């Protein structure tokens, strides 16, 4: 059994206000608030963001994604993203999560820069759109230069456990310049190995173990226990 002795943090992706409340109660260090788990997470309704902000006292980050599918957005969709960022800022949300790509799967520097500037001083995470980029290291350099706080990645694989080598490489190369958050299929069954191999300090999980969109409390407790051994 691998043992972990470093200080680590778990961010829980929640797809309802009720899950946010449970995540906070049972040990989450931060929440990424989304809706529509089947679509990979899109921006929640404004009413739910307001309610979550009133009830959640740990850092709350909101995904800024107008729809599921690819990360090539129309000018109209970009305007929706800007509106959503400003709304989150007005509510006192601690962070936002987004990512915009060009159709050739490179970082859309112009649009991301606009969104980053609009988001400040909130914490800003580039989400798993990074895993669709053709050149991860070039994408990381651009994300860092654009001023993102964090990047959420599975190491260019569908699950973090499959992308361990890439995650380790990225952490060794860029970990002092940006916070790298392994995410994608992270559960209590693999969290120790992922921490041991990557040496990252922050991790991302939905803690969902069935076909619902609801957090599993026992799974979250198990994740936290294995992270703090």
CATH architecture: Alpha-Beta Barrel
Uncertain runs are: none
Specify the CATH homologous superfamily: Copper homeostasis (CutC) domain
Q: Mind telling me the C-alpha Rg?
A: 16 Å
Q: Into which percent range does the helicity of residues fall?
A: 25-40%
Number of domains: 1
N-to-C order of helices and strands:
EHEHEHEHEHEHEHEH
Distance between the termini: 11 Å
* Biggest sheet architecture: 8 strands, parallel
CATH class: Alpha Beta
Shape: globular
Number of strands: 8
- CATH topology (fold) name: TIM Barrel
Give the amount of beta strand, in percent.
5-15%
Average of the residue pLDDT scores: 95
Which structural class do the helices and strands define?
alpha/beta
Count of separate DSSP helical elements: 8
User: Order of strands side by side in the largest beta sheet?
Assistant: 7-6-5-4-3-2-1-8
Concise overview:
With 229 residues, this protein is α/β, with parallel strands linked by helices.
Describe what you observe in this structure.
The protein is α/β, with parallel strands linked by helices and 229 residues long. The chain has one domain (9-227): Copper homeostasis (CutC) domain (TIM Barrel), CATH 3.20.20. Helices cover 38% and strands 15% of the residues. The protein contains 8 helices and 8 strands. It has an 8-stranded parallel beta sheet with strand order 7-6-5-4-3-2-1-8. Helix 3 packs parallel to helix 4 (109-119). The model has no long low-confidence stretch (mean pLDDT 95).
